């Protein structure tokens, strides 16, 4: 279908974007357009104005901030994937972003657009949750920082208001001792996950110091598999300990049943993928 008519504003700064959002009550932020444009074409959304944030310098690129990396929200997936700071400081990001869609989508779609879109089947929201990322959001009242744990509210809903812009995402650099792995189960190559598990494991002297698991598509929002994390923290880094902990991956989740998979099958996948991702991340 052809989208309903809309005006287009290309913002040169965050303030300009905020001004345009304030001026037009039903405006929407446009980043890479990879999720928004299909919604417009299906007429599931019909904003009167699109405010393009894709060329705002402040929102592009990756920079270091002490022991953290700050990723501009409008940085494309492809740019993130190739960024040397990402590869050196937090390589799990590149490993997850590499699985997003295909090269064409990765050249247009953005890191922040994916997180702001908050599709429970998206790979990056669960990554942000597992990394304990924090989001910098700008609005007319100034700027605020929202921890990932408070950011994702429901299906396609975040703590970013309609008149606000996600400016950047800050993540900790993962130092020595951290292993990571992303297990994504998709029905066809280069597609959304049926279920995914991001695992981060910190090992010290053969034990697991800390373990973090972010689950994709196991509920209306990305989910931290807390029961798994607690079971594994402080235990010996063995195949038996991982298998026992991964058995709890369904706890606290609420997967849907649809044409692709039943909720029971998704729960089964969550346990299997969590076990595999933790095994690889722990280097067992
Ligand atoms: C064929 C195809 C396959 C895909 N496969 C996958 C996949 O396997 N895994 C995956 O994770 N994703 C997948 N995607 C989605 C892709 O990752 C998109 O890039 C992403 O969902 C949205 O990013 P975008 O920059 O295109 O945002 P847009 O489409 O421009 O915007 C999406 C939404 O976020 C809002 N928004 C965007 N940026 C901001 C901001 N800075 N501040 C506030 N609000 C903002 C918009 O208003 C809109 O509501 C796929 C997309 C396509 C078309």
How would you explain this protein's 3D organization?
- With 284 residues, the protein is of the alpha+beta class.
- The protein is built from twelve helices and 14 strands.
- It has helices at 14-23, 36-41, 77-82, 84-89, 91-97, 103-108, 111-117, 123-130, 148-151, 226-232, 239-246, 263-281; strands spanning 7-10, 28-30, 49-52, 62-65, 68-72, 134-139, 142-147, 152-154, 157-158, 165-172, 178-185, 195-204, 207-216, 223-224.
- The strands form four sheets. The chain has a five-stranded antiparallel beta sheet. The protein has a four-stranded antiparallel beta sheet with strand order 11-12-13-14. A three-stranded parallel beta sheet has the order 1-3-2, with helices on one face.
- A hairpin with a 2-residue loop joins strand 4 (62-65) and strand 5.
- Helix 11 (239-246) runs antiparallel to helix 12.
- The longest helix is centred in the C-terminal third of the chain and has 19 residues, at 263-281.
- The radius of gyration is 19 Å and the shape is globular.
- It starts with 6 loop residues before the first strand and ends with a helix.
- The mean pLDDT is 96.
- The protein binds flavin-adenine dinucleotide.
- Flavin-adenine dinucleotide is lined by residues 28-36, 53, 73, 100-101, 105, 109-110, 112-114, 116-117, 119, 122-124, 160, 165-166, 191-192.
């Amino acid at each position: 279908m052809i989208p309903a008519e809309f005006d287009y504003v290309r913002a040169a700064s965050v303030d300009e974007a905020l001004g345009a959002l304030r001026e037009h009550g039903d405006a929407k932020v446009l980043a890479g357009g990879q999720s928004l444009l299909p919604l417009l074409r299906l007429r599931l959304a019909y904003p009167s104005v699109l405010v393009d944030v894709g060329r705002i310098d402040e929102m592009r690129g990756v920079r270091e901030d002490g022991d953290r990396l700050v990723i501009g929200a409008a940085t494309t997936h492809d740019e993130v994937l190739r960024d040397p700071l990402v590869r050196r400081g937090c390589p799990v990001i590149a490993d997850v972003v590499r699985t997003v869609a295909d090269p064409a989508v990765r050249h247009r779609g953005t890191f922040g657009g994916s997180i702001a879109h908050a599709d429970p089947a998206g790979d990056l929201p669960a990554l942000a949750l597992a990394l304990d990322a924090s989001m910098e959001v700008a609005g007319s009242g100034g700027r605020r920082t929202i921890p990932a744990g408070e950011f994702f509210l429901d299906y396609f809903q975040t703590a970013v208001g309609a008149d606000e812009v996600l400016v950047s995402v800050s993540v900790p650099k993962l130092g020595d001792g951290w292993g990571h792995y992303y297990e994504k189960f998709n029905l066809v190559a280069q597609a959304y996950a049926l279920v995914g598990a991001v695992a981060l494991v910190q090992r010290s002297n053969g034990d697991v110091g800390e373990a973090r698991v972010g689950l994709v598509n196991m509920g209306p929002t990305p989910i931290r598999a807390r029961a798994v994390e607690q079971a594994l923290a402080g235990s010996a880094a063995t195949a038996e300990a991982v298998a026992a902990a991964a058995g709890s991956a369904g706890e606290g989740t609420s997967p849907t049943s649809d044409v692709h998979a039943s909720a029971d099958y998704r729960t089964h996948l969550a346990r299997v993928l969590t076990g595999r991702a933790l095994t690889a991340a722990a280097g067992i």
